[in-house]
Amino acid sequence: MMQIKEENQDDVEPRVKAEVKQEEVDGEVEDSKRKCLVELLKKSDEQHGEENDERDSHENDQQTDKHGTGKRLRRLQCGKSFLPFSHLKEHQKIHTKEKSYCCTQCGKSFRQVKRLKTHQRIHTREKMYRCSQCEQSFSEMNHLWEHKKIHSGEKLHHCSQCGKSFGGARNLQIHQRVHTGEKPYHCSQCGKNFSQAGHFRRHERIHTGIKPYHCSQCEKSFAEDQTLKIHQRIHTGEKLFDCCQCGKSFAHAASLKIHQRIHTGETPYHCSQCDRRFTCSRGLRSHQMVHTGEKPYECTQCGKTFSQFGNFKHHQRVHTGEKPYHCSQCDKKFTQSSNLKVHQRIHTQEKPHHCFQCGKNFSRLENLKEHQKVHTGEKPHHCSQCGKSYAQYATFQIHLRTHTGETPYPCSQCEKKFSCARILKVHQRIHSGEKPYHCTQCGKSFAHDSTFKNHQRVHTGEKPYHCTQCGKTFSQNAHLKTHQKIHARETPKH
């Protein structure tokens, strides 16, 4: 029996020794942690002077935790205390401004790994917190809590200055900056200040050029999620906003608001230099460049400069040859959507621009403006070589070619050349045999508009050409000229 006890004792002794050794190792680890902690505290306290270091070391090193475990709590320069070493280490990053967790997609940095994971949901669009009442989803739990107050109607936080109520304390805090004018978020690159962190983050993307929101259909990228959603309506054709006066629909609420000013006549944006007024701020900004002469958009290929980005973008298609706007009826392509709309009026026969003096209608506004010079007699384009004047710039340009002899429009079939596209087009009907002008009374067809008009006078009996010497009238100018030769022969020569 004694022998068994002795053997048991022999077994126990090594185990006890091992346990004692493990306690010693644990003690060494604790000592190591404690030394490390002291080193961190020393570095932190050195920034606030040696006197604070001595005072705080006596008062705080002996402070025990509230649960009475006897373990020491550590307090930093901000007065906060921590029990686990890991919590202290995390907290210290606030003072050191260390952000060791970086987002690989947009480069943003975070102090805590959980903050990085929450942020990454912006890129993955993961929304794991769902509202049970309206099925809206959120990437963060606190956003869901704030949202739920919409359904409950709970607004516990009131603004003492204007009486507005808010579901969350954070929303109230942000709102109060409207009254205080506080803008705590500062852009170091351009000096702008912002009252909200979200607005500041969006602004920063102007400088960084980061566009984290991508359209899956056309691969365009956007700096803001909301801008992407609005853009996607181009592909879906969704137009949620209707004008109650004319029935027009719009993809954006802002576009509807601007459109409604056509009906109300409201022009809230004034030019301080020439008193012109505009329905939208964009129109005013574009107009102001007329006065300043500013042309910030330069073409790298030909050096041309533009005051408006839209015009610059359209110009670039001259070099790329891109024509993204297609006519569904004749497959013609255009560089600008406005040109496509004007072209489609050929098919629809729509002529929305009306001359109030003679009743003529035009498919394009610029054609109406040019036409109105017929009534005013205005001829602003003068030829310096022969003194002739023209109401229309295009007609003036064609006239100049009579002096230069330039014929830039060649016929591909017979190598004849012409000074303007219109004459080439008429000429090509000789080869094609096309006769687009039909007489409804006798069925005859004509290749030229002028020939068709002369023919119609056979049916109407109209004779607009008068001989000044004998009063005879003719349906065609050529007939008048032939007739005038009779008088020329009759006139005696001196």
UniProtKB/TrEMBL annotation:
<feature type="domain" description="C2H2-type">
    <location>
        <begin position="353"/>
        <end position="380"/>
    </location>
</feature>
<feature type="domain" description="C2H2-type">
    <location>
        <begin position="185"/>
        <end position="212"/>
    </location>
</feature>
<keyword id="KW-0479">Metal-binding</keyword>
<dbReference type="Pfam" id="PF00096">
    <property type="entry name" value="zf-C2H2"/>
</dbReference>
<feature type="domain" description="C2H2-type">
    <location>
        <begin position="73"/>
        <end position="100"/>
    </location>
</feature>
<feature type="domain" description="C2H2-type">
    <location>
        <begin position="241"/>
        <end position="268"/>
    </location>
</feature>
<keyword id="KW-0805">Transcription regulation</keyword>
<feature type="domain" description="C2H2-type">
    <location>
        <begin position="269"/>
        <end position="296"/>
    </location>
</feature>
<dbReference type="GO" id="GO:0008270">
    <property type="term" value="F:zinc ion binding"/>
</dbReference>
<feature type="domain" description="C2H2-type">
    <location>
        <begin position="325"/>
        <end position="352"/>
    </location>
</feature>
<dbReference type="InterPro" id="IPR036236">
    <property type="entry name" value="Znf_C2H2_sf"/>
</dbReference>
<dbReference type="GO" id="GO:0005654">
    <property type="term" value="C:nucleoplasm"/>
</dbReference>
<feature type="compositionally biased region" description="Basic and acidic residues">
    <location>
        <begin position="1"/>
        <end position="68"/>
    </location>
</feature>
<feature type="domain" description="C2H2-type">
    <location>
        <begin position="213"/>
        <end position="240"/>
    </location>
</feature>
<feature type="domain" description="C2H2-type">
    <location>
        <begin position="437"/>
        <end position="464"/>
    </location>
</feature>
<dbReference type="GO" id="GO:0045595">
    <property type="term" value="P:regulation of cell differentiation"/>
</dbReference>
<comment type="function">
    <text>May be involved in transcriptional regulation.</text>
</comment>
<feature type="domain" description="C2H2-type">
    <location>
        <begin position="101"/>
        <end position="128"/>
    </location>
</feature>
<feature type="domain" description="C2H2-type">
    <location>
        <begin position="157"/>
        <end position="184"/>
    </location>
</feature>
<dbReference type="InterPro" id="IPR013087">
    <property type="entry name" value="Znf_C2H2_type"/>
</dbReference>
<protein>
    <recommendedName>
        <fullName>C2H2-type domain-containing protein</fullName>
    </recommendedName>
</protein>
<keyword id="KW-0677">Repeat</keyword>
<feature type="region of interest" description="Disordered">
    <location>
        <begin position="1"/>
        <end position="71"/>
    </location>
</feature>
<feature type="domain" description="C2H2-type">
    <location>
        <begin position="381"/>
        <end position="408"/>
    </location>
</feature>
<keyword id="KW-0863">Zinc-finger</keyword>
<comment type="similarity">
    <text>Belongs to the krueppel C2H2-type zinc-finger protein family.</text>
</comment>
<feature type="domain" description="C2H2-type">
    <location>
        <begin position="297"/>
        <end position="324"/>
    </location>
</feature>
<feature type="domain" description="C2H2-type">
    <location>
        <begin position="465"/>
        <end position="492"/>
    </location>
</feature>
<dbReference type="GO" id="GO:0001227">
    <property type="term" value="F:DNA-binding transcription repressor activity, RNA polymerase II-specific"/>
</dbReference>
<dbReference type="GO" id="GO:0000978">
    <property type="term" value="F:RNA polymerase II cis-regulatory region sequence-specific DNA binding"/>
</dbReference>
<keyword id="KW-0804">Transcription</keyword>
<keyword id="KW-0862">Zinc</keyword>
<keyword id="KW-0539">Nucleus</keyword>
<feature type="domain" description="C2H2-type">
    <location>
        <begin position="409"/>
        <end position="436"/>
    </location>
</feature>
<keyword id="KW-0238">DNA-binding</keyword>
<feature type="domain" description="C2H2-type">
    <location>
        <begin position="129"/>
        <end position="156"/>
    </location>
</feature>
